[in-house]
Amino acid sequence: MRARKGTELPDDPIDEDEQDAVIEQFKTNQERAEKFFSTLLILVLVALFAFFIMHAYLHVLSPWPSPFEGLREADKLGRNLAGSGHTLTAISILFNAVSIISNDKMRSMRRSLLNIAALAAILSLVIWIRVLSSLPTFSRPYLFFFTSILLGPFLIQACFMHVCLETRKEISKLHGYKYRCRNA
Question: For 26, 67, 97, 105, which has the most beta carbons within 10 A of its beta carbon?
Answer without folding.
Answer: 97
